[in-house]
Every structure is written in C-alpha cells, then in structure tokens.
Amino acid sequence: MTLWGNLQNDLANVENNNATLQIGTCPAIGQYALPCALYLFKQKYPYNSVSVQSFSSEQILYHLKEHSFQIGFIQDGYNPQDLTSYQVLKNPLILVASPQMDLSIIELKELHTIPLILGPENSDLQKSLRLSLSQYGFDLTPLKPLLELDGLESIKSTVRAGHGCSFLPYFSIKKELYSKELKEIKIKGVNLETSFSMVWRKEENLTEAARSFIDFIKNEGVKGFC
C-alpha cells in the first residue's frame, strides 16, 4: 500500500474512533440510572464524545434499525429478534403514595379501589406494569386510572401532593422514599419487577467507542448506575 493509502486509512481510523457515540435511552433508566455510568465512562475514555437522546423503547428500536443510534437502552416488554440484547438492570416496581395516605398494605384484587396515576397506555411504564402484573394473572386493562401522565417526574409530583398512587421503578423514587416524601404500599404476596436492556445491531462493525462502551457497561457500568 502506498504512503498516501496508509495516510488515508489512518485518518479514517481517527475519524471512526473520534466519532460521536450516539445513544438512545428510554426515559426511566436514562433519567435516573444511566447518567452516573456515562460520567464514569467519560472518566475512563475522555476522548470519546457521547450524545444521549431520550425516546420510548419502541422509538429506540426503530431508530436503531434506521442507524440513527449505535446503542439503545429499552425497558422490558420487547423482544428485538434482529438486535443483540443484554440485560443491564432489574429493578422492583414499587406502589407508592403520599405519607398522608392512610394505607400501608392491600390485596392485589383491591387495586381497583385506589386512585391510580399511570403513564399513558402506550408508555414504557404502563407496558412494563401490565407485563409484571400478568405474571400474577392480573389484567390491568379493566382498571381506569385516575390520571395518565406523560413523564415520571409529573407522576411523582402528583403522588407527592396526595392525589393518588402509582407504580414506579425503585431507582426513580429511592430518594423520595428515604426522605419520606413518598411511602411504599405493599401488595400481599406480590413482588413486581421491571428490567432494562442494552441493545445494538447484530453483525455490524461497531466503532471503537461503541465497543468500548458496551464492554464498559457489561463489566463496570452496571455498578456505576445512579
């Protein structure tokens, strides 16, 4: 190969390695768990540029197939056959209320008696809740929530104000539980969980930054989640 050819290859490798790593993440893990891991990744790989955008899991899968992202983080309820998937986190789904609510434990069959505040029907949060409840033979469909709000923070604010109860991932409310702004309502004999996975396209020549990030999350990043 000529000197010019070698130079072109070297420049291509530099551009490839320094290209911005595009990551798409569903709101829950993107807002509450992933930021700390991203910080640690940047500490270890300071020359890698990272851009993170938040979408629903369904949109992330679409954008991955369209090559808009190199890596995505999705919530459970999806089985992307044409993508590589690696579960990074499993977290309890907690039924929470304002401490002023005079309720500490219920039966699953009593769920329809409390004012529920949920995400929209097609949201990751409600899809995950439906999936988790179905493992106990419970169908969420007949229940009519008091409110359907788009965004975990808006749900938390409404619950803190004493206007209802909601199911939220533990990592998104652990500070409020510790500070007693929210309290957990137990459901007898029921332990609900939600999980999150990292996904990327199969059989693709990933950039060095993407490979480094995937290896980092697998080996170190999970311990660094907020």
What do you see in this structure?
The structure is a single chain. With 226 residues, the chain is α/β, with parallel strands linked by helices. The chain has two domains: 10-89 and 195-224, Periplasmic binding protein-like II (D-Maltodextrin-Binding Protein, domain 2); 91-194, 3-Layer(aba) Sandwich (D-Maltodextrin-Binding Protein, domain 2). The chain is built from eight helices and eleven strands. Strands 1, 2, 3, 4, 8, 9 and 11 form a seven-stranded mixed sheet that branches. The chain is elongated. The chain starts with a helix and ends in a 7-residue tail after the last helix.
Q: Structurally, how many domains make up the residues?
A: 2
Computed CA radius of gyration, to the nearest angstrom = 21 Å
Q: Which topology of the largest domain does CATH recognise? A: D-Maltodextrin-Binding Protein, domain 2
CATH 4th-level superfamily of the largest domain:
Periplasmic binding protein-like II
- Tell me the strand percentage band: 15-25%
| Text of the CATH class of the largest domain | Alpha Beta
Largest sheet, strands/sense/barrel: 7 strands, mixed
The arrangement of helices and strands along the chain is HEHHEHEEEEHEHEHEEEH
Shape: elongated
**Percent in helix:** 25-40%
Q: What's the CATH architecture name of the largest domain?
A: 3-Layer(aba) Sandwich
Give unreliable regions as ranges: 1-16
Structural class by SSE content: alpha/beta
Query: What's the assembly state of these chains?
Result: single chain
How many strands appear in the DSSP assignment?
11
Number of helices: 8
